[in-house]
Amino acid sequence: MNAVNRFRKLSPPAQWTIGYLAVWLLLLFELRTVQWFPLGIHVLYCVITIPLGMVWFRRARITVTSDTLHPLWESTEIVARPSELFVGNETQSRVRQTPPRWRLSQRERRYLVASVIYVLWWHLALLILDLLVWDAARASLARVGMGALFFIGLMWVVWGIERASTFYAQTPLPEDGKRIWNPLDLRAWFYAVQWWPPPLGNLLSLIRHPNRVASWKPSMRNRKLDQSFVALLSYSFAFLLLSLLFSQLRGCREIYEMPAGGGEQKQLAQVVKIKKVIRKKYVVNPLSAIRFAVPPIDEVQLKLMEITEHAYTVGFGEGKGAGFSEGTFRGKVRLIRLEYSGGDWDQDFGIGGDLNMLLEYGIRTSHHVAEQTESRTISQLHNFPIGKSPPLVYMTGQQNISLSSSEVKTMREYLVDKHGMLFADNGGSRHFHNQFIAMMNRVLPDVQAVPIPLDDVIHRIPYQIPYLPYVAPHGGKEALGWYRDGRWLAYYHPGDIGDAWADGHAGVNADIWESCYRTGTNVIFYAHAEYSKWLEAQNKD
């Protein structure tokens, strides 16, 4: 109630300012966690800080009243009878400390307002750069701004410690002779103490009586220097800890965005270019010097040169550049692997493994791809909302697959409701084949696995796959699929295609691993194209 009463006593501008800052903190938390509002809403709200900051700074320059010129701390209040004030050591005055009251000078208030404005305007600049998709500039500004924020906070820590030390220096020592533990008080027992090397007597006493604090002898060091060192160390640790916690504050919501652009769903074409080659012919006359004769048109020979290149932009929809019409400028094709219990889900994961496939996809389609492959648990698929879910997730291994009932439900929701697709690869055993088929019977009990024909669109675009390439036919020689509502919900490769993507290509010849790269490109492209079609239909509806 005291806080409410104090808030009511404030002037209307102060109340509006506190309300604005409270909403700003809530929006900042929303931006780092659930992200319900679009980025433009945050930018518009933070733009208000430009005129508002100017008003704050102008009001901070107003001449303060006489009571604000008092010292920062109103430290003590002497409560004693007049006759007791001069008795000496026999009768001590009763000293009552009153809560410290902050008194800021005009200059200090301006510095405080400038510090708050800096944080708000720095946040606004980051939002604008994020909205413009200038990721490099935003990252640089974030690093520089964080360093400046550290030094601004350090200056306020130094200021606060100096004022607090002044306040506690005016208070009397404890009557019972107890040690002072307050680090803001320069008279604290742990300042100016010889900690190292420890005296032998103190060390033995600490070993014998670990529950007792040894009586360390004071040293000749400066107490103020010790206090400054403790303050710097504590502030640096707290700042680092809060920064790490804030950077990890991602909440329970994730989004997946495809790269913006457009293109056609056609095979990569081979274009035949005809190049006219005019050959020079030497005509020698025995009765004259050598002369060059221009050959007639009918003697021009045509040389056919076959050049393989993209005859179109690979993608879907109308847009500039290679990509998808429902993508965004910051979007990238990502390869997300599923983590599951019971097996080696991380087989050929990352650098030297499935990252090779992701990079090859970017080279072959000119789509923007992520720098690294990723992994998520099956339960984490629930964090992706409808319309911002991964079009494709990847799964491999050669051992057991153990899914809980909730994971089965999440997987079914991802494939059916969120229009996702599962790309699975048998990493090396017939046992994994049986495990995966059993898992899919639980996830999609009403859909049966069928062989995917080689003339299906998933085996024709963007590459024509004349045969199914494999390293070893652990689960057969045909790709299996789960088909529903006009699309493939799952694609199962039975022959360890992931080993062909990895460094060394499992020792298979170039034709095999090249066909494996093409098959992977087709499956990834198919999932994203179908997802873009679905989003386009949803937006029209």
From TrEMBL:
<feature type="transmembrane region" description="Helical">
    <location>
        <begin position="35"/>
        <end position="57"/>
    </location>
</feature>
<dbReference type="Pfam" id="PF13709">
    <property type="entry name" value="DUF4159"/>
</dbReference>
<feature type="transmembrane region" description="Helical">
    <location>
        <begin position="140"/>
        <end position="161"/>
    </location>
</feature>
<feature type="transmembrane region" description="Helical">
    <location>
        <begin position="12"/>
        <end position="29"/>
    </location>
</feature>
<keyword id="KW-0472">Membrane</keyword>
<dbReference type="InterPro" id="IPR025297">
    <property type="entry name" value="DUF4159"/>
</dbReference>
<feature type="domain" description="DUF4159">
    <location>
        <begin position="334"/>
        <end position="527"/>
    </location>
</feature>
<protein>
    <recommendedName>
        <fullName>DUF4159 domain-containing protein</fullName>
    </recommendedName>
</protein>
<feature type="transmembrane region" description="Helical">
    <location>
        <begin position="229"/>
        <end position="249"/>
    </location>
</feature>
<keyword id="KW-0812">Transmembrane</keyword>
<keyword id="KW-1133">Transmembrane helix</keyword>
<feature type="transmembrane region" description="Helical">
    <location>
        <begin position="111"/>
        <end position="134"/>
    </location>
</feature>
